[in-house]
Amino acid sequence: MSTATTTAPGTGNQPVGAWTPLRRPVFRALWLATLVSNVGTWMHDVGAAWMMATLAPSPLMVALVQAATTLPVFLLALPSGVLADIFDRRRFLIQAQLWGAAAAAGLGAAALAGLVTPPVLLLFTFLIGVSAAASAPAFQAIVPELVPRSELPAAVALNSLSINVSRAIGPAVGGFIVAASGPVAVFVLNAVSFFAVIAVLLTWRREVPSSGLPREPFFGAMRTGLRYVRSAPDFRRVLVRAMAFFFSASAVWALLPVVARDRLGLDATGYGFLLAALGAGAVGGALVLPRLRRRFSNNRLSVGATVLFAAVSVALALLRQPAAAGIALALAGAGWITVLSSFHVAGQTSLPGWVKARGLSLFLVVFFGAMAAGSSLWGHVAASHGIPAALLAAAAGLILGLGVVPWNPLRAMDQGDLVPSAHWQPPPVHAEPAPDRGPALVTVEYRIPAAGTAAFLGHMRDLEASRRRGGAVDWAVYEDVARPGRWLETFVTANWLDHLRQHDRVTMADRRLQEAIMALCEPGTTPQVEHFVGPARGRSTGAMTSAPE
């Protein structure tokens, strides 16, 4: 790997190299175990795709194997992200890995018994995908727990590298095993590979964060996560860009088995080596990516890589020589890792720790949802109009998708912005309200000179987004008609406990924003904060209405 290093923000001149996170024992052990497990997964993918091509040699049925792999993440990633944020992520991951091992072993047993039909193969592939859906948000969210903040980008890149190293190894090994012994062997080996991750997780003594507040309820936590994303424009841009790319890029992955068999005349071993070429290209791309990042922004890299991937789609539609197709797929791998890494770093660095698994689960929903929908569509197009037509249409879709770039630029935040600041003082109370008492209303009074009004209102737009990200369900700002320059900000949470959670969620970026607003206040004045809650249960509410959701 390249020995290029970068200097992390906040670490002075201490360089962070591409391999630095592997010095951390738990990260290193989990990285190696995940590599083994990913090799097993890619071996399974080769065996499942080739078995389907044998059982039902139709482009649509082969593409449905890819859809069955990705659909569980689309359906279950968000609930899994919620669970990973509110429960112990280590225990949750162990249970998810045990599920995957059981499902993979079940497919192996069914294959040994000769019971595998196309529906059975799709069912077990879906069940294995459930394990991936449960694991993925938690795996991504624990990375900041395993390495210091300064090493996070390098750790994210290493995780992407692990996936692509396994892609270079797994398909080739899987194709060889399928050709020599049949798909059953790779199904059994995949089941065994899950236990590498389980063993590391069992030895990891994770320190479970504790805020002193009760655990969020499941549906409340899901609403909070969705509300956060709605008020986080940087993260929303990542989702839009991901949807535009992965929907069309899925054609290469979904149709590659039939390209290998029908257009290139290859067997299972040849198909495995095509996937290995793609994985090797991704590894090569990861090696040069740090150097490219010093010269180009995430935006320019992702756009260039998208154009490269589109060109490869065109090449695969036209080429009939396996060697040329392998070279094209190596270039596709380099483009794929560049786009995926750019999106993932931008998403990872735009989420604070308390909502990280939920936010990343939405990225996975978009990623796998686009892959599943695209795989099904391109399979239909290939079945109706031929493989070349589907690949050419997908290439056109990739280029058209670049139309969203000007309105959705990628921006990686300084992770220091998202560190909890704990600068809100505990609210003064006569007697602590019941946690579920609500709604809770907070008012903040500001005195702003006329000259500072425009700047104040500009900051308040950003403050509204901050309040809503933290849990506010309603927000407004008003000026006193009798005393110009006296402004009242109001925001509402569903109950008192949700407001207390806001105190835990404010970040250094929020603190700097509030300091900028305070600097605009009239000399000698400071914002005046007051707290109100709805009547306790059992009391008459009179004409009081509840806060809007």
UniProtKB/TrEMBL annotation:
SUPFAM superfamilies: MFS general substrate transporter. One of its GO terms (molecular function) is transmembrane transporter activity. Keywords: Cell membrane, Membrane, Transmembrane, Transmembrane helix, Transport. The chain crosses the membrane at residues 29-53, 59-84, 184-204, 238-256, 268-289, 301-319, 325-347, 359-381, 387-405. Residues 26-413 form the Major facilitator superfamily (MFS) profile domain. Residues 529-549 are annotated as: Disordered. It holds the Pfam family MFS_3. The keyword ATP-binding does not apply. Gene3D superfamilies: MFS general substrate transporter like domains. GO terms for cellular component: plasma membrane. It is a multi-pass membrane protein. It is found in: Cell membrane. This is Transmembrane transport protein, putative. It comes from Rhodospirillum centenum (strain ATCC 51521 / SW).
